[in-house]
Amino acid sequence: MTEAGTAASSAATTLPEPVRQRVLTLAAHALGQLPASDIPAPLRRFASFAPAKRAKLSASVLGPILDTDDHFRRLAAFEVRREHPELGDAVADGVAVPAADPVEVAALAYLLRPDDWEQHVAAAAQVPVENPRADEEAVNRLADQLDQARTETRQVRERLREQVNELKAENVTLRRKLNEARQRITGLQTENEQRTKEAESADERVEAVRAEVERELRKLRTRITELEAVEHAARRTAGQERELASTRTRLLLDTLLEAASGLRRELALPPGGELRPADTVAGSEPDAAPVGRTAPEDDPALFDELLALPQVHLIIDGYNVTKTAWPNSPLHSQRQRLVTALGALVAQRRVEITVVFDGAELSGPVQLNPPRGVRVRFSPAGVIADEVIRQLVRAEPPGRPVVVVSTDREVADSIIQLGARSLSASSLTARIART
User: Fold this and answer.
1) Residue 282: its pLDDT value, please?
2) How far apart are CA 202 and CA 79, in angstroms?
3) Could you tell me which residues belong to the region Disordered (predicted)?
4) Is there a contact between 9 and 116 (Cβ–Cβ < 8 Å)?
5) Beta-bridge partner residues of 313
6) How far apart are CA 402 and CA 415, in angstroms?
7) Is 399 left (phi over 0), alpha (psi -120 to 50) or beta?
8) Which of 53, 165, 290, 435 has an alpha carbon 20 to 30 Å from 283's alpha carbon atom?
9) In this structure, what are the phi and psi dihedrals at residue 290, rounded to the nearest 5 degrees?
10) Phi-psi category of residue 283: left, alpha or beta, with phi > 0 → left and psi -120 to 50 → alpha
């Protein structure tokens, strides 16, 4: 043992009992805050106890270790100072705290060991011990107060017992009333359930009737919608037929008028039926030139004569012409070149032109800007362009001149049977080249 440890031990043995008890209490509390590695082996089993139990059971072991183990005492003093920062700092710095308890100050000084710690311990030893007689008088006073409290408690208990008896009697009455109320409620619930069942049954019947009415109403509405659709379709069809009949009649009348005018010019008929003086002069008259002429289908002059017919409708088999004229060009370029050239032809002769392309050649939507006066149609899915051409010829009124440009012999034969005139693709390409 070192010299300092010997001095500490001798001082510890002379600690006043109140100071020593306070030191053990503070050190036992600090013991629970230290890590296990910093706690001496004999004290480790007390570290997990509650603070009061730890202070009581470890006192016999903790006191000697505080007397002999300086390192453990300093660790405990650090925790105590952290728990009591103001008084601990004052004791460690040697600052006097007159209002503090001398026993508390002496216990902190013993653990912290400032230079004047022995003086604090000596001052605590001078604190007078309370008079045992005064303690006895205090005990007697407390005994009298206890007897008085017991008397009052007994009186209160008797009053409470009476109140409990009254409450029990009242509880019996309330239970009887509660049972009667429950019986009435049970009867009302039974009646309510019966009425609820009757109401649910009535609701089910109403819902069934309502569902039947709604089904009938839906059927009537569906029938009305169907009849309205049929009526609308009939009106639209009748309107379209009237409009188409008017258009066909107007075209046929225009054709007849222009044909009569052309025939008058062709036959050189006089404007009136009166005999002219020159008609009386004798002489032989030349033979009249034949009306119209016959020419091959690829004759450009025949193409111009047919375009000169009144209200002529020129229908063109698009790819049949473009693949003849520009076979090496892409399809989109062929289409655009054809409709552009036909736009110039419309501007010159003011004829109605419809170009039909086969829709089977398309891979997507077509971007095409036809000029004004040129109608462009693509055959729908599953229908070839030849059939669309035949439908266009059938749609025209009988008597209107219709010219179909196609090298396809089957198309030519079929449209001739329908009353149209057929021209080859080369006649159109020659006319376009000349334009």
Assistant:
1) 42
2) 83
3) 268-289
4) no
5) 352, 402
6) 9
7) left
8) 290
9) -60, 145
10) left
What does the pLDDT look like over 173-229, one tens digit per residue?
Answer: 999 999 999 999 999 999 999 999 999 999 899 999 999 999 999 999 988 988 988
What is the distance, to the nearest Å, from the Cα of residue 317 to the centroid of all Cα atoms in its chain?
53
DSSP state of 98: T
How does pLDDT run across 238-293, given as a tens digit for each residue? Answer: 777 777 777 777 777 777 767 666 665 655 544 444 444 444 444 333 333 333 33
* Distance from C-alpha of 166 to C-alpha of 359, rounded to nearest angstrom: 106
Q: What DSSP assignment string belongs to 321-353?
A: HHHHH-TTS-HHHHHHHHHHHHHHHHHHH--EE
Backbone phi, then psi, for 261, in 5-degree steps?
-65, -40
Q: List beta partners, residue 376.
A: 355
- Asked if pLDDT for residue 3 goes beyond 60, the answer is no
What gap in Å lies between CA 406 and CA 419, rounded to an integer? 15
Stated length of the chain? 435
Q: Coil, strand or helix: which one is 371? A: coil
- Spatial separation of the C-alpha atoms in residues 123 and 309, rounded to whole Å: 146
Out of 131-145, 239-253, 417-431, which region has the weakest mean confidence (pLDDT)? 131-145
Distances (CA, A) of 98 to 21, 105, 125: 22, 10, 16
Instruction: For the sheet with 352-357, list strands across it.
Output: 374-378, 352-357, 313-317, 402-405, 421-423
CA distance 115 to 121: 12
